[in-house]
Amino acid sequence: MSSTFWAFMILASLLIAYCSQLAAGTCEIVTLDRDSSQPRRTIARQTARCACRKGQIAGTTRARPACVDARIIKTKQWCDMLPCLEGEGCDLLINRSGWTCTQPGGRIKTTTVS
Q1: Relative to the CA of 45, which of 23, 37, 62, 63 has its CA 20 to 30 Å away?
Q2: Which one Pfam family would you cite for this protein (predicted)?
């Protein structure tokens, strides 16, 4: 095989690796599964990939994956990362396993951390 071929292969590999990397401080949703088999209830599971800066960890801001201060996760003060949409109220679950977002109309969305 010629050296030109190998140079092309190395360049292509580097380009693929570079393009698949996230910018520092950003996240992307990798998988999103919804289960609506139960009446009046939808269970959603989401996996995100984040490239967080030092002192940050993957979390949720305004109902989207985001890099947040690691202290929030360690102390389980979930509402400090502003996980709910604008106009919604945030409350910690009693056992700090997650939070609820309450809409003005009374609808409640519960999020648990696993």
Answers
A1: 23
A2: TAFA
